[in-house]
Specification:
This protein has about 450 residues and is of the alpha+beta class. The protein folds into three domains: about 1-150, Serine Threonine Protein Phosphatase 5, Tetratricopeptide repeat; about 160-230, no CATH class; about 235-440, q2cbj1_9rhob like domain (Jelly Rolls, Sandwich), CATH 2.60.120.620. Helix content is about 50%, strand content about 15%. The chain is built from 15 helices and 14 strands. It has an eight-stranded antiparallel sheet. It is globular, with a radius of gyration of 25 Å. The termini are far apart.
Amino acid sequence: MNDLKKLVESFYELLEEGRELLANSKFDESLNNFQEAEKLLNSNDLSVKLKKEDKILLYRGLAFAHHNKNNVDKAIFYSKEVLSLEQNDLITLSNLAIFYRVKNKFNKSIEVLEKLLEVKPDAWEAYYNMSRSYIGLGELEKAKECLNKANQMAPGNTAVQKDIAALTDDFDEKYEKLIELKDKLLKDDNNIFEDGTFSDHLIDVFTNLGTVNLIKGNTRQGLQDLGKGPGFFEFDVTKEIKSGDIKEKSQVIISNENPNFISSWKMENIKLCDDIIDMFEKNSDKHVPGMMNKVGINKERKVTVEIPVKPIDIQRNKNKLLLDYFEHIGNCINDYCNNWNVLKNFKKFHIGVFNIQKYELGGHFSFPHMERDSMSTQHRYFAFMTYLNDVDEGGETIFPYYDISIKPKKGTTLIWPSDWTHTHYGDIVKSNEKYIVTGWIEYHK
């Protein structure tokens, strides 16, 4: 009897310590504690000695910890364990919907949220999360309906108002909504940090406001807004570089049409590629489906999963991994400009929000496209892309006007002009996944 009592006490100690570790974002340690507690539960017939609430706390903890370790399938499994004990557990229903969305199971996510709303009809967060799943499905009108319901229930919520503004079709109305929201957020000192940067909500508003101004043709104001929001990396190409300082020399892309103005470099620190892939996979909650300007989600044209990354987040968090990556990109830009001396006249280039992308088996961006195709993209002068892994079959980047097909090779970075002359597409991935970092090199003067 005393032995059983000790086991029960050990279970509670492991459970409480695991929850405390989880609250402090110590995911590895918390998962170890929860797993040890689960072993005690399963191997010593403690089930009859424990309350249902204790088992729910354990399975919730396991779901949280696994999710934060990017073990999303296990997070879903343990969420279902909770619901087998308490089918209307609101916390678990909400989390399970998010886990399904991370796996791109948008309909499953919506189904769970509908069940949650049956139990708690005034849960505005459920409508907000449902809007994200509808966006994933490309059903933007349904997403708007959910956001409007969330706004009725939580009229002061800036995250909801920001998304409503972002999905508004009328650009004049969108602009007015964003200006109103920007002014509201600027009046709250909590949105302005000591270093002069802004809260995530305000950064998102400046991001959307910048995009709208670019679309409306207000290029200078649009770039100023983007500078206040996601920010930019700046590259001064007028600085003299000694030949010995250039570690990564460009390689000529051979084609029947020369010059083709496409250059490539081999990354010196190849381990960066593995580390960026690892970071991508560990941040599955930030994954979004690949979208295209003007048409949104169109799986006939583009199938990717991606994480948009803001320079302000890298700079503010001193993310060494991505700062090292952009040191490599800076070397490539300088070398490219050395190869074409006229580019020195532009003096400085910038990179704003960029994407880390994953192409699953069968993924592609097979629609031929260019990177400067509207008023809102006139400031893009070049595109850049780094292949983070080898692809055995498929996934080539194809420039049809130059008869060029580039096979993805780990650590290879490309730079090319953004205009119609360099229309390109990404062929279907036929073997393993394809990971890339990609974005635009801009001129702001």
